[in-house]
Amino acid sequence: MSERKLAAECQSAGYSGTLIPYKCDLSNEEEILSMFSAIKTLHKGVDVCINNAGLAHNEPLLSGKTEGWRNMIDVNVLALSICTREAYKSMKERNVDDGHIININSMGGHRVVPSGDEHFYSATKYAVTALTEGIRQELREANTHIRATCISPGIVETEFAFRHHNSDPEKAAAVYESMKCLKAEDVASAVTFVLGAPPHVQIGDVQMRPVEQVS
């Protein structure tokens, strides 16, 4: 579903707020900075930053292509870090002391499954786990009440597996047919829960799996 179509559906459904799509290549720092500049001009700044973008390529450690590894680093690690830095700058310059940075991580950032096509992806998600705790520590050093949280889901039924296994759509479909998976709405509910926590409560990580998921 396109972002513009989703925005129109949200509006017609009567949801509060407005979804404003903005196209940005997160592997390009200049485009990220341009996006934050536009947000500042049009909407004053960022109070809550949810780093949701992430991807995986089927590139094992012993035989994978460097290009695929680099793309995972660029999007899963560097883009998240750049967006976090720029969001914090936006909050700081407007004296926002109750903002929130939420990183959509993965159970892959907490354990390594015995599957070569997951290993480099898992490394990038372990980085997200470390980065989120580092962000929390630096926010404390800055004496701010801005919070940092990971949401770490297991298998969520999205387009993720089809992009991961783009050369084998049957394998991708089998991932979602093997169990009752989490839905995007389940992850969104976890985000809402974290945002609704009392101001003195710091939720570090929400780990969530389908009940039927083994690993």
Summed up:
The protein is an alpha/beta fold and 215 residues long.
Structure description:
The chain is built from 7 helices and 4 strands. The chain has helices spanning 3-12, 29-43, 66-93, 119-141, 160-164, 169-177, 184-195, and strands at residues 48-51, 100-104, 147-153, 205-208. Strands 1-2-3-4 form a 4-stranded parallel beta sheet, with helices on both faces. The longest helix has 28 residues, at 66-93. It is globular and about 50 Å long. The two termini are 30 Å apart. The model has no long low-confidence stretch (mean pLDDT 94).
What is the mean pLDDT?
Answer: 94
Number of strands: 4
Catalogue the unreliable spans. Answer: none
Q: Which percent bin holds the helix content?
A: 40-55%
Q: Kindly report how far apart the N and C termini lie.
A: 30 Å
> Structural class per helix/strand content?
alpha/beta
Q: Round the Cα radius of gyration to an integer and report it.
A: 18 Å
Helix and strand element order:
HHEHEHEHHHE
Which sheet architecture does the biggest sheet show?
4 strands, parallel
Tertiary shape: globular
Number of helices: 7
Strand order of the largest sheet: 1-2-3-4
* Strand residue percentage: 5-15%
